[in-house]
Automatic annotation (TrEMBL):
<dbReference type="InterPro" id="IPR000073">
    <property type="entry name" value="AB_hydrolase_1"/>
</dbReference>
<protein>
    <submittedName>
        <fullName>Alpha/beta hydrolase</fullName>
    </submittedName>
</protein>
<dbReference type="GO" id="GO:0016787">
    <property type="term" value="F:hydrolase activity"/>
</dbReference>
<feature type="domain" description="AB hydrolase-1">
    <location>
        <begin position="58"/>
        <end position="244"/>
    </location>
</feature>
<keyword id="KW-0378">Hydrolase</keyword>
<dbReference type="Pfam" id="PF00561">
    <property type="entry name" value="Abhydrolase_1"/>
</dbReference>
<dbReference type="InterPro" id="IPR029058">
    <property type="entry name" value="AB_hydrolase_fold"/>
</dbReference>
Amino acid sequence: MHGGPGLGPVFERARYPDATQVHWWHQPLAKPCAARPYLDLLEATLTEFRRAAADAGQPLTVMASSFGAHLAVHLARHAPDLIKNILLLAPTFNPEQAALRLARRAFRVHTDHQHAGKLATALAMYEDDPGRPRFWDVFGALSLLPDVTELYFGPHGGAEAARSFAQLIQQPGAFDGPTSVATSDDFSAQDHTPVRSGFGGPVSVLFGAYDPMIDADQDRAVWETIFPQAAFFKVETGHFPLLELSLEECLAPA
C-alpha cells in the first residue's frame, strides 16, 4: 500500500515490472464533495484486501509505505486473520509533522533561494498559529523551492531513484492533488492516539537513515505501542526504501 495520500503506485510498478507476486493496489481517488474521504479510503482498503486474500486462498503479507502504514493498521485491526506478516517502510504516523520536517530541511538546503523567505514566513506563522490553513500555506511555499523531491532520497544510490521519481510524478495517475488535500484534512480531524493492535504476527519496520520526514527515535516509540512485537531496522535510504533498495532487501527483515 503506497503512501501519499494521493500518490499512485506508478513508481513501484516502474521499478519492479516483473514482481507479479505483488499486488500494487491503486487506491481510489476521493469522490468530489465526499464527507469523509479518509474513512472512505479505509473502507476501500479493507474491501480490496479481503478480495485479494480470498483470491489467494491464504493470509497475505501487507507491505505499506509512508502514509500507507495507517491503512495497514486498519487491516490489522479488522482482518488480522488474513495477514501473514506486516512490513512498514518509513511509516509516517503524523503526516503533518513529517511534512513540516521536510519543509524545514528544504529551507536549510535552499536558504539562498529567492522564495526561501516565503517558506520561512509560512513556517513562523504556523508556529504561532498551528492548524490546517497555516499548514497548507507552508506546503504552498515549499512547492516554490526547486528539486524538493530529491530530498526524499538518500545520498547513497538515491540519485537514480530521485530522477525516476521526478519524471514519473508528472505522469497521469502518479499523484492527485485534490485527493491528497481532502484525505489529509479528513485524516487530521480523526483521533490518532496509538492503540495496541490485536494482530500478533510478525511486524518489521524499516526507517531510512536519511529520511527527512521521520524522527526514527520518536516514531519508533509510537509504532512499538501499536505493534509491541515489531522488529526495527535502519537502512541506508531516504523516505522511500522500496525505491532505493531491491524488493528482496526490503522483504528480508520480514
